[in-house]
Design goal:
It contains 7 helices and 2 strands, in the order ααααββααα. By secondary structure, it is mainly α. The chain has 2 domains: 129 residues, no CATH class; 46 residues, no CATH class. A two-stranded antiparallel ribbon has the order 1-2. The protein is extended and about 65 Å long. The protein starts with a helix and ends with a helix. This is Reverse transcriptase domain-containing protein.
């Protein structure tokens, strides 16, 4: 017998996936393609943003149908998981050591497009269902870190005025990107 919690999780997952699939993919694809910067750098598939921006409308419809199919079938093309990695020199000149380089991963443009559409859908679903707390500032449009800092400052100021202790925890991940 299955665990009833697992069954409930599966039901809720399928409901969420159906909600996410209800949007008009063709309109979304056109919108996100128009927002792409016309860069000529390309990933493992050798397709650049510039190439995607100049494709005929029929291709956009085909791409939207593919996105819809993959979403319904819970698939993600394996070739989109490959990245072309380039290391950039952090120094202005000279031969860098390993810790003086910064890698960048160039993903397939189609993959980035699909991820942007999914991000918009998930963000909309999370915001409309109040899944993200108001206090969350990072990774949300229109919610800036300075706003959160001012909020913390105001909370501390209010607590000092009311003679209430304030607990704060600060974490600084030095060179977090280099260690990932």
């Amino acid at each position: 017998m299955s665990d009833p919690y697992e069954v409930q999780i599966d039901i809720e997952y399928l409901q969420l996936m159906n909600k996410l699939a209800l949007f008009n993919e063709n309109v979304e694809a056109k919108k996100h393609i128009s927002r792409l910067k016309p860069k000529r750098s390309y990933g493992f598939d050798a397709v650049s943003n510039y190439m995607i921006k100049i494709i005929p409308p029929g291709y956009i419809n085909c791409l939207a149908n593919c996105f819809n199919t993959w979403l319904k079938e819970y698939r993600y093309p394996d070739v989109w998981k490959l990245a072309k990695i380039i290391t950039l020199n952090k120094l202005k000149a000279g031969v860098p050591r390993c810790d003086q380089t910064r890698p960048i991963s160039l993903l397939a443009t189609h993959s980035k497009l699909f991820e942007k559409i999914m991000l918009e859908r998930i963000r909309l679903c999370a915001e409309t269902n109040s899944l993200v707390p108001i206090e969350q500032s990072g990774f949300r449009p229109g919610c800036l870190l300075p706003t959160r800092v001012l909020s913390i400052y105001q909370d501390v100021k209010n607590n000092i005025t009311a003679n209430i202790p304030t607990l704060a925890i600060y974490v600084d991940y030095q060179k977090a990107y280099d260690k990932v």
